[in-house]
């Protein structure tokens, strides 16, 4: 069976400076896939290029069997992709509800129903839909950003460091929600620095180093891989 999202040999950068070098990745229906790698490795650039937020200079992106290479972010949304960027992923001055309505700009109908459906997963958001996003905690803001991207019911959701700067309890809640999203039929491709926790819920992982593929393994294999442990899992304290 072919992958839902298949990226082959993608290159991208900024103003003539190449950051991502022929990187490849695939995500199948029902999967959570995580990309880890050092700071500045080009992980965010890779996600942006897949989503069409920046234009790749080479390579191919297939979504659900359709060649979507070179499409704009708007066109990618129409094709079934959602994206939550690393920063500035909600409109701070807009309310929770307004943020979700913005996410629905392409939706023909059922906006209120979809908002209710998504907020049902997040009681703290559901309780105060008229609150401006700026008053939310980091975790609640991330939850809102994910809901916003889910308004249009994507087939695949790209998440850039969804748990950055969150407390352990909030991280756990966000990772739980990511599994709920996966269970609802949306494949997930995320970039994470909290590698141990991310890999623990991932079917597969990739290591990106200096913009290039360095390793691909199952989440379990990566957690057990001594080199991955030494390089990328060291900063999370060992339990017990
Ligand atoms: N908008 C931009 N314009 C120019 N260069 C950029 C831009 N964004 C990122 N870069 C450069 O591209 C390289 C890769 O950055 P990128 O943000 O993709 O890395 P990353 O792996 O996501 O890092 P981090 O772990 O810090 O989030 C860095 O050298 C960065 O300085
Ligand atoms: Mg990044």
Describe the structure.
With 240 residues, this protein is α/β, with parallel strands linked by helices. The chain has a domain at 5-90 and 154-232: Rossmann fold (3-Layer(aba) Sandwich), CATH 3.40.50. It contains ten helices and ten strands. The strands form two sheets. Strands 6-7-8-3-9-10 form a six-stranded mixed β-sheet, with helices on both faces. It has a four-stranded antiparallel β-sheet with strand order 2-1-4-5, covered by helices on one side. Strand 4 and strand 5 (66-67) form a beta hairpin. Helix 3 (96-103) runs parallel beside helix 6. Residues 43-44, 86, 160 line the site of magnesium ion.
